[in-house]
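Still learning folds. Look over my entry:

…
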Amino acid sequence: MGSISTTMRPADDLLLTAEEVALMLKVSKDWVWDHSSRRLPYLPVIRMSDGALRYRASGIEEFLMEREKASTLRRKRR
């Protein structure tokens, strides 16, 4: 058995549904869907073969950190 690739995600990096992401971010599912395809800020999404959308928990956390950083930078410019 070979070594695990460094590009693989940990087993605890859950895949979330749009509904779970909406609950996590306290937004509507429509907001999640809009920001998964066409609106900025763009949510990182995995499109499954059956058309279902899934989101890595780590990707959502990264998205939140980027948004927080952008908010901080905007406040400092004022």
